[in-house]
Amino acid sequence: MASNNEFFEALAMLGSERGLDPEYLLEKIKAAIVIAVKKNYEVEEDNVLVEIDPEKGKFGVSLVRDIVEDDMVENDRTQVAVSDAQQVRKSYKVGQRMVTTLKTKEFGRIAAQTAKHVIRQGIREAERNQQLSEMQSKSHEIILGTVTHVDPEKGIVSLNLGKGGDAILPRNEQVAGETYTEGQQLQVYVVDVVPGDRGPRIMISRTHPGLVKRLFEMEVPEIYNGTVEIKAISREAGARTKMAVWSSDANVNPVSACIGNYGSRVAAVVEKLGGEKIDIVKWSEDVSEFISAALSPAKVVKVELLPGETRSCKVTVPDHQLSLAIGNKGQNARLCARLTGYNIDIRPESGYYGEDDDSVQN
Fold first, then answer.
1. With a cut of 70, which residues of the chain have pLDDT below it?
2. DSSP letters for 307-333
3. Residues 157, 149: Cα–Cα separation, whole Å
4. Number of domains composing the chain
5. 8 Å CB contact between 193 and 132
6. pLDDT given for residue 356 in this prediction
7. Which of 20, 110, 115, 156 is deepest in the core (most CB within 10 A)?
8. pTM of the model as a whole
9. pLDDT in tens, 140-183
């Protein structure tokens, strides 16, 4: 085994202090040396043997050659005459393979530098994989980022996510009316994390309904421990969210749990969303009952589920609550349709349709 201080200094400098898997690094090291030897000696991978002893800080590199008849040698780097092989070991026979350890000088400085370069690449790859794994564990979670740049022309916002690297908040994932400034701390929802050439690509959002869900999990212990479950969310970011909740404990009111004493819990979420209105309704297995609750704050007289696979219904409301049921520019009915998954046709009790009345599809 020959010592190679340069190689292991590079390993020590770039490896252990970054918390990388030693086994993974050793595989990268072996692959790097094989590449260097192949290039330097113009042989195939099958002709290179690498043995590493990390505890002693040593490694051995050998050429492996096929033993052939004396007059059959075509390439002395991959083949050796049987008579020459038997000078090393008398028991060698044609068809066997002879291992010749390369001396450090024979291995060459160029090969060592090539190995070091490939090792560095391997370590960067390991770090990217580690970063990808760490960020994928935060997928569908809320993380805190720092605004590093705001592009007023393209409308995109750049954020630094710490160990997660950098990410872009596109215009369509920003809440209308929100303003962002450099240095600002911003909570964002991680929609997805995918591998990229320069590290993980993190897709973030401020408009995703998952942001509201995670904020409630942080504020409501009953959601965090599983007693209260968020069954559905529909959201028009910056304006209004409807959220349907259910409790596995008959003694726990899911709506009250989310609202909190004197509205403290929902108020905390509203503040983090910049004043966005939030309607919290009780989810029910009874679809008619669920649709009635989802149209809150309007009162519902009757829900008629229509036959077929279109998931449609007709909802009757008191005449004076028609506008409330539909909402400003149809927002309440639209959010209700998305929350329940039903196409909703809202009708006044008198049967007369006003100008604002219309059916709403999810």
1. 1-23, 54, 57, 104-112, 114-116, 118-119, 352-362
2. SSSS-EEEEEE-GGGHHHHH-GGGHHH
3. 6
4. 4
5. yes
6. 46
7. 115
8. 0.67
9. 899 999 999 999 888 899 999 887 778 999 999 999 888 899 99
The strand pair at 48-53 and 58-68 is best described as: antiparallel
Residues forming beta bridges with residue 61, ordered by sequence position: 50
Could you tell me the two tokens for 291?
Answer: 């649709």
Euclidean distance between the first and the last CA atom of the chain, given in angstroms as a whole number:
71
**Rounded-to-integer distance, Cα 248 and Cα 260, Å:** 18
Residue holding tokens 């002395």? 76
Q: 48 is written with which tokens?
A: 């290179």
The tokens describing 313, both together, are 């219904």
- SS3 (DSSP) at 88: helix
Q: Is residue 310 part of a domain?
A: yes
Provide the 3-class DSSP secondary structure of residue 65.
Answer: strand
Distance of CA 69 to the CA centre of its chain: 59
Same domain, 182 and 235: no
- Do 129 and 151 lie in one domain? The reply is no
